[in-house]
Amino acid sequence: MKSFLSPTINPPCFTWVRPEQGEVAKVHEWIQPISSETDVEKSKDADFVVVGVPLSRSSISASGASEFPDYFRRAWKGFTTYNLDFDIDLSKMTALDAGDVPMHVTDIQKCHTNIIQASAALHTHFQTSKVCAIGGDHSITAMMVKGLHRAKPSEKIGILQFDTHFDLRDLSDHGPSNGTPMRNLIESGVVEGSNMYNIGLHGFFNTKDLKNYADEKGVNYITLRQARKKGIEETVRHCLDELASKVDTIYLTVDMDCLDIAYAPGVPASTPGGMRTEELLEGVLAAGSHPKVKAMDIVCLDPLKDTLVQPTVKLGTHVLLTFLTGVMLR
Amino acid sequence: MKSFLSPTINPPCFTWVRPEQGEVAKVHEWIQPISSETDVEKSKDADFVVVGVPLSRSSISASGASEFPDYFRRAWKGFTTYNLDFDIDLSKMTALDAGDVPMHVTDIQKCHTNIIQASAALHTHFQTSKVCAIGGDHSITAMMVKGLHRAKPSEKIGILQFDTHFDLRDLSDHGPSNGTPMRNLIESGVVEGSNMYNIGLHGFFNTKDLKNYADEKGVNYITLRQARKKGIEETVRHCLDELASKVDTIYLTVDMDCLDIAYAPGVPASTPGGMRTEELLEGVLAAGSHPKVKAMDIVCLDPLKDTLVQPTVKLGTHVLLTFLTGVMLR
Amino acid sequence: MKSFLSPTINPPCFTWVRPEQGEVAKVHEWIQPISSETDVEKSKDADFVVVGVPLSRSSISASGASEFPDYFRRAWKGFTTYNLDFDIDLSKMTALDAGDVPMHVTDIQKCHTNIIQASAALHTHFQTSKVCAIGGDHSITAMMVKGLHRAKPSEKIGILQFDTHFDLRDLSDHGPSNGTPMRNLIESGVVEGSNMYNIGLHGFFNTKDLKNYADEKGVNYITLRQARKKGIEETVRHCLDELASKVDTIYLTVDMDCLDIAYAPGVPASTPGGMRTEELLEGVLAAGSHPKVKAMDIVCLDPLKDTLVQPTVKLGTHVLLTFLTGVMLR
Amino acid sequence: MKSFLSPTINPPCFTWVRPEQGEVAKVHEWIQPISSETDVEKSKDADFVVVGVPLSRSSISASGASEFPDYFRRAWKGFTTYNLDFDIDLSKMTALDAGDVPMHVTDIQKCHTNIIQASAALHTHFQTSKVCAIGGDHSITAMMVKGLHRAKPSEKIGILQFDTHFDLRDLSDHGPSNGTPMRNLIESGVVEGSNMYNIGLHGFFNTKDLKNYADEKGVNYITLRQARKKGIEETVRHCLDELASKVDTIYLTVDMDCLDIAYAPGVPASTPGGMRTEELLEGVLAAGSHPKVKAMDIVCLDPLKDTLVQPTVKLGTHVLLTFLTGVMLR
Amino acid sequence: MKSFLSPTINPPCFTWVRPEQGEVAKVHEWIQPISSETDVEKSKDADFVVVGVPLSRSSISASGASEFPDYFRRAWKGFTTYNLDFDIDLSKMTALDAGDVPMHVTDIQKCHTNIIQASAALHTHFQTSKVCAIGGDHSITAMMVKGLHRAKPSEKIGILQFDTHFDLRDLSDHGPSNGTPMRNLIESGVVEGSNMYNIGLHGFFNTKDLKNYADEKGVNYITLRQARKKGIEETVRHCLDELASKVDTIYLTVDMDCLDIAYAPGVPASTPGGMRTEELLEGVLAAGSHPKVKAMDIVCLDPLKDTLVQPTVKLGTHVLLTFLTGVMLR
Amino acid sequence: MKSFLSPTINPPCFTWVRPEQGEVAKVHEWIQPISSETDVEKSKDADFVVVGVPLSRSSISASGASEFPDYFRRAWKGFTTYNLDFDIDLSKMTALDAGDVPMHVTDIQKCHTNIIQASAALHTHFQTSKVCAIGGDHSITAMMVKGLHRAKPSEKIGILQFDTHFDLRDLSDHGPSNGTPMRNLIESGVVEGSNMYNIGLHGFFNTKDLKNYADEKGVNYITLRQARKKGIEETVRHCLDELASKVDTIYLTVDMDCLDIAYAPGVPASTPGGMRTEELLEGVLAAGSHPKVKAMDIVCLDPLKDTLVQPTVKLGTHVLLTFLTGVMLR
């Protein structure tokens, strides 16, 4: 089947059969797959486009995060479009599913190139839509942001990152792995270190030399300990305000390993002492509500390691819906 | 074997062998099975009667919650009767186990009728005892309350509900499933909507039309977000005070899906962002201590999905003991 | 959405997106969903129709077998249409997916009526197709066969059953549960006991009175021990030959609990000492190759209990493909 | 509560509630608990007595085999008393449950002494009954046999052992652990090496020096490879015939680690290449049918490691019922 | 291989191969095994010595806590030596791994004697080092403290305990099991009850008589409820200050069952309503920073029961590193 | 640390501490790590060298097979060197562990080059040793064989393959993935199709075009069905005899997915209807005993998906030991 944004994105591998009558009530009835160029033309003004980025062979540790886009879509049936907390119905927004970025089995560089192209295509076709990439491992963030940069080269980009790690590893060690996206963006000149804000670092999960590199490049980081003292929401707002004064577009990246491992059995790199569910959701809501946040991703969630009732898959899905709630609160 | 409250309740399937001497120290040594009418006669003044309601074929999703009564009883061995937090020994109360309500395999209506009859029988024989139903899915709540109403028709009943859902689905869709108990009670005239208080709603787990129905019927609901701001305990006390001014008897129903899914792997319908263990226990304690709360249930805990060390089964059991601690604090 | 065989069958909840070019290679690319009456008209001569029957609330023990149709369809991606053992390509047959029979949450009788209607509709529209029902629990077999009987009342029906149990329980005990389908068919006069052949009984999983009933009604049974001595394939052929001399149509029912529990973690009722995988596949192949076998089902597989890599879901799917290989060997 | 065979055995911790009317159909309705000396007096002629031996702190590797007696009793509900393969109803035999041998938490020698005393008491009170010990780890075998010897000192004892290991480790290394029972019995003079027959050894699970010891003491062993060539049943019969010519009483010990690990996830010491379920059951049946086999045990099954649907617990239970079928075939 | 502190401690069963060049970055590159007396001599001034105490056959319930020392060491690879929260690099301290205390399979008293000797040897050779024992079950605490007392008889010892239980059971019941260490120390005169501070008790996990014993002996306890009201950190500091005024040396014992069971699937005795991860880490940090805390242990963590991504093993390891962070903050 | 066969192989990440005295009894005491060039010099005549090849990012499906070398080494403690079936002690052979081939995180081609170099280095230094590669996914086989070819270019190589798949996928689709090794070797001219023998194909796991390619290139394949009819051992001997008449060196590759999925939960690609454990072991033994088999590998075993007691890891380890038994039987 010819790809709709040829050759950068595969259409979804299945399409939900929708009820003929009755209003939209569940997420899978709301988000519309796009599989032809006609679809694309008709939906340029969509509020929101989701795209799967099923790449995790670039992960340092063996990972099945490439399976998350599939699990994510299947989880939609368990969520309504109505957020009771805020009396908001997401289905008032137009939402699209662009399918998955095609991947190569043994050529990771090719995968990364595909992601850049797909991101550029999406940001070009859907100028005003929020684009959300569903990873995949964290290496995809560098590529999604590069694609955004390619599509809108005049916009200065900043990043808000929820993460237990700096992700500032040296690319000369092992290439653009999931430990490197932030450094990749700094070194390629796409994002300045001083326009990166990392919330959630804590404990024994980064080496000292990464901190030194961060300091050298002016990367901003607020440890989880500090953020808790100030309040997660307030911390996020503060970071976004600073960022907004410096950049045109803010990209939110949610590395699910920022969570406490008790909340995220499906994130092998999550750690003791990380964020609680409600803390992450609070932070993501605040981010979603900021007018300059125009793209996001969710990465490093390995559904093959989740427990039986899939708490992590559900949480990852909730993160997206919470972000969108924020968008509607703008 | 002839049933002691013939034909409404099956006797417990086993009776614990008690130590000949020495004081009661564990819960399984304390709660006494009743298996004959003589037992019933002798124990009319029991402080507390537990009854298993092993029905979950009325659940919308496939559920093994019907197995919880068995797991619940086996979990007793892991708990003492002594609550150190309050220096209270539950064994000073008389406690009975009435066994399980008999169920039919393919006739769910018959199951529901049996529950109503069992509830009525228990509330008739044990006029002053607290009756606690161990589900089973949430459809049983409507039946337990109808039985209470049948036994004590002159008493006006109110409900305090811990839940992630309204449980106000339309019965004409799929009959009295686990999504309907509150609507069932409203439509049957047993409880007024305005005498229902739901604590714990949040996120994307209810459709907008259910909220509209709730508003129309005057159902009271405090979202988890709101309750956290005010404090769970204070919220519960406030609801109970309001209820107490309007009704004679308050029925507490604890749908375990009000919990965050990280705390409740054995509740498939639990969700990201739900209550933490200590929040639920705090709420249940407050409810137990209110003099008008005379019956309760615990529902939707599927022990077949719990993880190895059974955190959810233990938590469900702890909920009951915490409720009883509240009773002794009155 | 209006149902294509209104009102008896729901269309599949999603449709696979097919590659535009290139030959069919995987099962999910081969079996075509039908979702409109036009589809039905065009495909009356299909070789094969699969229909999901997601009912397991009629199961004596708590069961998630209702989820198998979904897991079954998702497993298709792991199988090619080409059977190397016999150099046979199944994709030379026309294959349809009729979707799922609609179920009611609390009215099991209604579910059973729906199954009868759906089966009758399928056997009426697809006169020459093999119809395969994907359960669900074993109660569905009685309904599928009744539907077949309704569609083709003049045809005498016989049954070949792979099972660890007689499934001859008394319907007056608990209604038409998964323990009763064979008795249901005998008592309703749809199939004579002497036209039933059960292969696989063994051990301590049937009460004596069921054997007595079987003997009384002339039900034929060959224990697994006996079948192994003679050879599974030869046993099946012998049974089919006997049946063929007495009936017009043979219905094959595969209760997955005939397997040894080591091979079938997703079948809670499977037992130590049951069939090995290759024995069941050998038997099913022999059955598929018999010209009078015109319908089949696979039941009692609970995918929620399967282990991580889903051995049982894969085996259940393999059973169908093996049956179809037999069909092509005719 | 005073123990009925004071002080050697604890009564069962619960007694099943039996149906008032109707014939016995399930195993838990058949095996009667004994909890008083009166019970003992009345049932001296019982065909069969089961006793739990919940000791596994004497296991070299960390083990939860001490929990098997409890899981074993709970598994009874899943088995009828009727063995269809042989048209035999076990409930024609009188069967007793003597409860568990009391154990000490930190004094393993005391545990072993208790087992010896309990075994002696059982063999004294139930002169003609088959006594079956449910372990626990393999160290209990030496103690059960010593108790038998104490009760009937004039009877010469032989042992038939299904095992992947010799269990002939040197007691001076780490005391009477689960690796030593056979050596223990040889060194204590209770059983001669030449009256021991081990079936099932294979692979890389014994050191050379254990084989040397076995040879030196004349222990008979038939590897699984050899047994398979000859046939398991024939091998067992041959061993029993040899034994019967030399001893008065044969004790059967089934170390569940003789199984292939694919069949026995609940036996951590089971191995690739071990017995299949049907091989073990065939061997146990043959053993049960020999008139000189008067006692048996089942050991090293750790139910805490079993998978969800408990294949190993069910298999362990089936081993006992198969043994008893053999007894009725005598 | 001759033991370096013959005969009390086994050397580690493997030694990590270290990178030839480059700075230490991961914990397994930092902590040095000692396997000869020369090693010992050279490292008398080590800041920190870890010793494995793989004993859990003294546990009341079946436990695999004996495996934790191995899992603990393997977990080191997942942690850096750099604590970002405090900008502290642990690798500035000299750290040793003394291997495991040798255990006997069937003689628990011998195991306990070995622990006392090993503890005494460690505290004698490493006069100024912090000694951390990795259990094993809680019975080891009494032995580690006795060994400390033997090495430094003139120092008065106090204990800070994080625990859900008193661990004051009567030793005459079942010997020095994991329910008895505190009573053991009181009765042996090694530590006075009034110099024990227990933080974390709550719920239904202690019998009333244990509380009475605690009161009688002047044991100090702060329930989790009380500690949360005051703040965990403040509570710990308060206890340590009181202790410091009374004793020379403070021993910290962390029973991992103080955690909420949602955070600690690998601690079967953990309970609903226990500590959250961050609460425990906060408490341990405060303890580590107190100058009189000179030894510690971590007990009752059973890695065989942990879930797939090993949240509990990682948390147990984090507890040690957090303690050491406290040490560097002194 | 400088690599001993610089730069092709990393030394083992830990070395076992060996007992000072006493004979070798367990596998981990037998196989010696080599970590310096001196080691290499001294051990040129080793009978056997094992090398880890931790690559699975070249796998089509997400895989953790890269972790198997580590799990494999840790499993050694569970095996003695003595094979009782044949009274053979493997420790009479000299055995080495060369560590792991170094891998790159994001450059799969670099990984493959490293494997070729490592294989060539091993076959050059250890001219007469059996070299066994522990995968990793099946893509490594092409590289190990290419390395062998580079080291010994004059030797004609044949392959005996146990596999459910042809592994003849087109490299132009997705590069040298785990679906391509046999085609890779044919196309690169290293091995002729007619010198490849595949045993174990069955069912629906290969597309028709792969069979066509196999036929075209003269690849020999014996389906599992055919092999079972003839006998696995006889089939293997027959293949080896044919091969021996055509080539100088035979390479054995064991893709663990040839197993039935019931036996191999740790091999996601294993299938219903595959080999049983004893069949594979029988085949491997026969292969090991053939004098021309000089190298082997074990691939596609993902220990992260194995069940609790690690049946698949143990089986994979047993495969190696069984192969070596064959070697000693030559």
TrEMBL record, chains A, B, C, D, E, F:
One of its GO terms (molecular function) is formimidoylglutamase activity. Keywords: Histidine metabolism, Hydrolase, Manganese, Metal-binding. It is an enzyme of class 3 (hydrolase). CDD domains: Agmatinase-like (cd09990). Gene3D superfamilies: Ureohydrolase domain. InterPro entries: Ureohydrolase (IPR006035), Ureohydrolase_dom_sf (IPR023696). Pfam families: Arginase. Its EC number is 3.5.3.8. It comes from the Bacteria. Belongs to the arginase family. This is Formiminoglutamase. It comes from Neobacillus ginsengisoli.
